[in-house]
Design a protein that fits this description.
The protein has about 325 residues and is mostly beta strands. About 15% of the residues lie in helices and about 35% in strands.
């Protein structure tokens, strides 16, 4: 099987829609339909169950592609990421219609002790933000685990957190161990380690399960979380560069072209406009708003051509040095 897929071309994935009670029924203009009548909180763009829409691997899930051609897809990442060949970045769009629970994610060490491949460090890029939209990011100065426990029991944990206003175009880093919550009125592009372990500390009295002891063990009273200043690069904007992921934004005028080099596993995500991705033997792949085109490492690099004015993200794992 590995010989059969000696050369992979870029391929587009269909989003996988995750129903959540805090989600939305209408995800326009990002998606015309979700295939469900339930509220959708997350559109997984590189989830393990996402179906390949284009190319020789069409009809397979991303998990199946990773299993069949992990080295061609991921390169050194496949050999160095805890013996796992799953795609290492989970990219999503988030659509909260109400406050999410106050939660925390484990770091690599805690996640692996629990039997998972990796922890969950993530970042959020603000695509839409209503006036006054906020997130809760980290704890106020001077709090201890005992004080956090007491605040949870008293129903006052929300008052102990840092409230951060957000605006379109901002990038927020959410280090593992950061106590956090997302408010309504935003659409976020989330790039994270592929891990879905979440410990819910507090849920405003809603009748959902909490994970108090695990969450208190995972949380850190001080982390590196916060807004990240963008950096102008040669032809693109670097929004964030961290140990587990880098996210770049490209903005093309109508008819413009950009060359996207590849050294490690990653994907492109359409944000606005129309464009095509050119690379590999399968010709062009249309880059659609709210969908990901996966870039196999073995294709070496791609060119993106805009039809009308277009913006897209390149989310990738930093190359192993």
């Amino acid at each position: 099987m590995m010989k059969k897929w000696a050369k992979l071309a870029p391929f587009r994935l269909a989003p996988w829609f995750s129903e959540r009670p805090w989600g939305r029924l209408n995800l326009r203009p990002w998606y015309e339909s979700t295939g469900t009548t339930a509220p959708v909180g997350e559109a997984w763009l590189t989830g393990p169950e996402c179906i390949v829409e284009t190319g020789a691997m069409a009809g397979r899930t991303l998990t199946q592609v990773s299993d069949e051609a992990g080295q061609q897809l991921l390169g050194a990442t496949a050999a160095n990421d805890c013996c796992s060949v799953e795609f290492p970045l989970l990219v999503k769009l988030l659509f909260p219609s109400e406050k999410l629970s106050v939660q925390v994610h484990p770091d690599d060490a805690m996640a692996q002790a629990l039997g998972h491949t990796r922890g969950k460090t993530e970042c959020w890029y603000v695509l839409e933000a209503a006036p006054g939209a906020t997130i809760a990011l980290g704890l106020r100065e001077g709090l201890t685990v005992d004080k956090v426990r007491a605040a949870i029991e008293a129903g006052t944990l929300e008052d102990m957190m840092q409230s951060v206003p957000v605006a379109v175009g901002e990038m927020i880093f959410v280090d593992a161990g950061t106590v956090h919550s997302i408010g309504p009125g935003v659409v976020l592009l989330e790039t994270q380690q592929t891990c879905d372990v979440t410990f819910r500390l507090y849920d405003y009295g809603r009748p959902r399960e909490l994970h108090l002891e695990q969450g208190l063990s995972a949380m850190r009273t001080r982390t590196a979380a916060g807004k990240v200043r963008p950096r102008a690069m040669d032809g693109f904007t670097r929004l964030i560069e961290q140990r587990y992921f880098t996210v770049d934004r490209y903005d093309l005028e109508a008819g413009g072209r950009a060359t996207v080099p590849l050294e490690s596993a990653g994907c492109l995500v359409g944000i606005s406009g129309t464009a095509v991705v050119i690379g590999g033997e399968d010709g062009e792949v249309e880059l659609l708003q709210g969908q990901a085109v996966v870039l196999p490492v073995n294709c070496g690099g791609v060119v993106v051509e805009a039809g009308m004015k277009a913006s897209f993200m390149h989310c990738f794992v930093p190359a192993q040095r």
